[in-house]
């Protein structure tokens, strides 16, 4: 689904990512690699699998959209305990793979990333970025009012009531004025239900396309 | 047997005589036996089991100085709210007979100073809950502190039986029994249909004596208080029966008549079936008699403990005219008898109604009375049916729960924290319980794996560790893990709760997050008997103030499914409606009252019965309808309805909607339904039952929702006290549904997933009852009737069609459907 932020055209992808067509920059937020490893380190029996799967999803998405750059809007990592040697190896191999395809990766540091004493080598980092006139930050609170901005951090989820005392919860893109908050990309991430205001727009991707949620269904 | 000499002063000073069943209990106890005592509430059950150990202690040769490990009696109570009452009851004879002995209570409510003191020294008798006992097992010195333990009493065992907390009790007892082989275990239970099974679950006797389990001693006894306590069940019969609905709810229109009954008695307990009903009736009674402001109180499980204690104190002191309450007052030691008990709405079960009736006429020899206030005509008949069943002693059974693996892994970690265990010995201990006696190798190995390396799929759990294997023993010694586990023990609680407070900090109680999120600041709600205005919600605290302006406030509602009618009561009801038996019951006021409606049913169709299957067919504006009346309770009907709808629509392609109540279910379709006995038989067959149920009921979605409790018990979700969550804790927070997805994707063989599905099939869909019902129907005649309009029995099922929900399908298809509906509505 296409969307204009200020006057820059964006594409919202059903894989919970945003593509900036002008520079073919792919933006995702909140991957939280190594989350299940952090759980296991604390004695909670959660199986591994999410890390490799999420890296693979990102690689395929970058390839299928013919992206020329990948920007991660913060919280690529979950916690220091989650960055095990195995996961570090997997990330190194993944970065190499993207490098071979000519896709540089930049991480806009998020609050979780900052807790890590060291980050895997070969990963460019920044506090904020400017892509095609659109700012990319992690925390929406850091967005400059009036500047078109992409952010993450909140893991927005839309609650859609069906009027029968049940409701659907779906990760969503949340647009308020010039600020587009991206859903969390990681497959082992939770979410927080957004409380939209009048004039906000919500987009969900329940299947293989992105749909706008009509305001009547927000309740 | 005579009353032991040591106990005589207590009885003499009161001018009491011990009952024969009490003497029987003391004798059995002194003979070294365990047992189950079954007696209605209020007959001196407490004394019957408490005075045995006490007599033994008093007549023991006194040792000089205070005992090093005095703990002798452990008293397990299902509700921590009961602990203080129990303690009072235990202390009374203690003060008189053995003032040097102490009794204390240790529950989740115990202040930390006392808890600390109890950590250092346990008293002669300790009152506790299954959760707190489990917690005590994590202390390395607990075995030594129980060195003199002689007796464990499990109070209100019928409440624990069949629940996970009951299994938790079984597991804790197995530990204590292994430490102290001569331990005597006594259960107290209200009337149950399966007393022997209840006893065997609590006090299992080894079927094959092994070298490691010494002979269990004499067989455990069942002692019944043979004092028939007469129970009288009356009903409030509405004046104008023709304006009384056949089904559904009439709210509080009988309230004026109830008020007159309240005027006539000094004290009344008015039971309702839900917390919301409690709030509604409290408001209604207050509106009718504002002058009763100080004599009217309410009591339900979501009210703050202080509020509840004030009400209980008021009852004890006789200050209150009426307390509107839920099952939160079902239990209780022999406290504060009231003059009368009123039950609003369906009694739901025979045992339950008798238990509630037992709250009145508490003294031995007095009659217990309960007044039923029906919400519709069929409930009127339900009360009559309960009366007949009670007279014939047809009481419901409570089936024990088997092999909940989430509890097993929780308990294994508990034990490994307390003292390192060796696998084979622990397995024998676990299998000495009723719940796990058939534990298989696969389950046992999986559970051991789950607490040490994540389970069978080793590759899926790199670097996971909870228990360590050191010198052939499992132990948990990481302090953070120990603390984490202690915090999560026994939190078998429901949805996330929001605490309701005034700005000055006074807490009223808690409501569900889902309810409060629908109210905006400035909006009103009715909770804890008050009209409140919501100020704000923050960090799971809802700040409120008394509402000043009069507006329609939302009555607080709580989720949870409606309780179904028990099969026993449903059967009794069917018997009563049976015209063949009608003559025998013509004297019943309830049946006389509903006779006009039954006559219409008989004239337009036929009176349904559980001896045959009545099937009505009708056409209406909505399309075509089938109504079936198997009398199997709403949960079974829900499954049956979904099953038939699925099977018929699979063949016809028409979409079919199903509704249900306690008596039957309906199927509605635009077209294509008809009475064809052969087709009906096919749709009701037990062939491929499980497959079809799993396919049609979206079991995946249901088990995902059910998984929360399992994940919590098994220690996959951490419970943190609200507002005190540490940063490091937040890093390992996850929702149950997310965990469910992750497990399904990366460890689909995980037995917790299977348990979730099994529990959904058994508890929610009642597969066993459903299959029994289908088998019964197979042997019965199908009686087809085509009616010109909706019969009285069919009407409520038709009216319920609007509220039926069973979310199904993928998120995408559901959203598409919603969008389509929305567009259609906008057009």
Total domain count of chain B = 4
Mean pLDDT, all residues of chain B? 84
CATH class of the largest domain in chain B: Alpha Beta
Strand content of chain B: 15-25%
Largest sheet of chain A: 9 strands, mixed
Number of E-state strands of chain A: 16
What would you call the quaternary organization?
heterodimer
The CATH architecture of chain A would be 4-Layer Sandwich
Helix content of chain B: 40-55%
Taking the alpha carbons of the first and last residues of chain B, their distance comes to 85 Å
Mean pLDDT of chain A: 90
Structural class of chain A: alpha/beta
Proportion of strand residues of chain A: 25-35%
- Spatial gap, N to C terminus of chain A: 23 Å
Strand order in the largest sheet of chain B: 3-4-2-5-6-1-7
Show unreliable segments of chain B: 208-215, 804-808
| Low-confidence runs of at least 5 consecutive residues of chain A | none
Number of helices of chain B: 33
CATH fold call of the largest domain in chain B: Rossmann fold
Number of strands of chain B: 27
């Amino acid at each position: 689904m296409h969307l204009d932020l200020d006057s820059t055209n964006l594409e919202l992808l059903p894989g919970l990512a945003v593509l900036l067509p002008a520079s073919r920059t792919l933006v995702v937020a909140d991957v939280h690699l190594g989350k299940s490893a952090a759980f296991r380190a604390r004695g909670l029996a959660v199986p591994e699998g999410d890390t490799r799967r999420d890296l693979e999803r990102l690689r395929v998405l970058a390839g299928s959209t013919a992206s020329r750059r990948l920007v991660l809007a913060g919280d690529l990592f979950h916690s220091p305990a989650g960055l095990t040697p195995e996961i570090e190896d997997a990330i190194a191999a993944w970065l190499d793979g993207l490098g071979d395809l000519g896709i540089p990766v930049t991480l806009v540091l998020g609050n979780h990333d900052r807790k890590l004493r060291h980050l895997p080598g070969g990963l460019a980092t920044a506090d904020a970025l400017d892509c095609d006139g659109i700012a990319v930050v992690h925390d929406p609170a850091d967005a400059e009012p009036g500047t078109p901005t992409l952010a993450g951090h909140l893991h927005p989820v839309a609650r859609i009531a069906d009027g029968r005392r049940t409701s659907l919860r779906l990760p969503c893109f949340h647009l308020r004025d010039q600020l587009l908050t991206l859903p969390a990309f990681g497959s082992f991430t939770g979410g927080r239900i957004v409380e939209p205001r009048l004039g906000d727009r919500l987009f969900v991707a329940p299947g293989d396309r992105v749909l706008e949620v009509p305001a009547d269904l927000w309740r | 047997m005579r009353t032991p000499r040591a106990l005589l002063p207590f009885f003499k000073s009161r001018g009491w005589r011990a009952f024969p069943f009490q003497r029987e209990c003391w004798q059995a106890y002194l003979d070294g036996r365990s047992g189950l005592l079954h007696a209605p509430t209020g007959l001196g059950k407490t004394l019957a089991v408490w005075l045995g150990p006490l007599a033994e202690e008093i007549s023991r040769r006194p040792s000089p100085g205070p005992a090093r490990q005095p703990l002798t009696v452990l008293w397990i109570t299902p509700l921590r709210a009961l602990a203080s009452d129990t303690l009072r009851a235990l202390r009374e004879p203690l003060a008189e007979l053995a003032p040097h002995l102490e009794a204390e209570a240790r529950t989740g409510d115990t202040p930390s100073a006392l808890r600390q003191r109890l950590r250092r020294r346990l008293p002669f008798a300790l009152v506790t809950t299954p959760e707190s006992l489990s917690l005590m097992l994590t202390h390395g010195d607990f075995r030594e502190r129980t060195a003199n333990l002689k007796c464990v009493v499990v109070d209100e065992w019928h409440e624990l039986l069949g629940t996970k907390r009951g299994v938790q009790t079984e597991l804790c007892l197995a530990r204590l029994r292994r430490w102290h082989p001569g331990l005597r275990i006594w259960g107290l239970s209200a009337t149950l249909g399966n007393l022997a099974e209840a006893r065997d679950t609590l006090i299992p006797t080894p079927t094959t004596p092994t070298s490691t389990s010494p002979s269990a001693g004499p067989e455990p006894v069942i002692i019944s208080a043979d004092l028939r306590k007469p129970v009288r069940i009356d009903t409030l019969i509405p004046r104008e029966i023709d304006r009384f609905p056949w089904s559904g709810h009439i709210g509080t229109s009988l309230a004026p008549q109830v008020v007159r009954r309240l005027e006539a008695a000094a004290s009344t307990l008015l039971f309702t079936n839900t917390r919301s009903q409690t709030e509604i009736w409290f408001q209604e009674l207050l509106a009718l008699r504002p002058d009763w402001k100080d004599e009217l109180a309410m009591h339900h499980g979501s009210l703050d403990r202080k509020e509840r204690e004030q009400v209980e104190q008021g009852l004890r002191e006789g200050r209150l005219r009426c307390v509107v309450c839920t099952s939160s007052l079902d239990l209780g030691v022999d406290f504060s008898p009231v003059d009368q008990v009123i039950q609003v709405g369906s009694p739901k079960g025979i045992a339950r109604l008798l238990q509630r009736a037992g709250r009145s006429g508490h003294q031995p020899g007095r009659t217990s009375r309960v007044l039923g206030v029906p919400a519709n005509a069929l409930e009127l008949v339900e009360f009559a049916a309960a009366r007949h069943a009670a007279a014939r002693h047809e009481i419901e059974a409570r089936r024990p729960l088997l092999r909940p693996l989430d509890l097993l892994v929780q308990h294994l970690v508990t034990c490994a924290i307390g003292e390192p265990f060796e696998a084979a010995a622990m397995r024998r201990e676990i299998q000495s319980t009723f719940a796990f006696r058939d534990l298989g190798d696969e389950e046992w190995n999986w559970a051991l794996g789950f607490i040490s390396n994540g389970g069978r799929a080793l590759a899926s759990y790199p670097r996971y560790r909870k228990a360590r294997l050191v010198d052939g023993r499992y132990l948990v010694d990481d302090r953070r893990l120990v603390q984490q586990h202690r915090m999560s023990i026994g939190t078998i609680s429901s949805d996330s709760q929001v605490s309701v407070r005034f700005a000055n900090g006074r807490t009223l109680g808690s409501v569900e997050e889902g309810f409060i999120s629908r109210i905006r600041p400035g909006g009103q709600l009715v909770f804890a008997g008050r009209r409140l205005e919501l100020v704000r919600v923050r960090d799971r605290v809802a700040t409120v103030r008394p509402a000043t302006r009069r507006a329609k406030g939302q009555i607080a509602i709580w989720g949870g499914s409606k309780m179904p009618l028990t099969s026993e009561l449903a059967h009794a009801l069917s018997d009563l409606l049976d015209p063949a038996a009608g003559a025998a019951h013509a004297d019943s006021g309830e049946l006389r009252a509903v006779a006009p409606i039954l006559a219409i049913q008989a004239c337009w169709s036929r009176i349904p019965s559980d001896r045959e299957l009545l099937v009505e067919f009708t056409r209406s504006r909505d399309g075509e309808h089938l109504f079936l009346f198997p009398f199997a309770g709403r949960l079974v009907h829900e499954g049956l309805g979904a099953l038939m709808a699925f099977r018929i629509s699979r063949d016809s392609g028409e979409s079919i909607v199903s509704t249900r109540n306690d008596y039957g279910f309906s199927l509605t379709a635009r077209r294509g339904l008809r009475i064809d006995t052969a087709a009906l038989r096919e749709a009701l067959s037990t062939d491929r039952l499980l497959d079809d149920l799993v396919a049609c009921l979206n079991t995946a979605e249901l088990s995902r929702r059910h998984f929360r409790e399992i994940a919590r018990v098994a220690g996959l979700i951490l419970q943190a006290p609200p507002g005190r969550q540490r940063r490091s804790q937040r890093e390992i927070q996850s929702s149950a549904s997310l965990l469910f997805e992750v497990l399904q994707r990366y460890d689909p063989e995980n037995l917790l997933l299977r348990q979730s599905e099994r529990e959904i099939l058994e508890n929610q869909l009642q597969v066993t009852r459903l299959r029994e019902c289908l088998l019964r129907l197979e042997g019965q005649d199908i009686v087809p009737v085509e009616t010109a309009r909706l019969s009285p029995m069919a009407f409520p099922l038709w009216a319920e069609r609007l509220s039926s929900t069973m979310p199904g399908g993928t998120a995408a298809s559901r959203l598409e459907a919603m969008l389509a509906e929305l567009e259609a509505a906008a057009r």
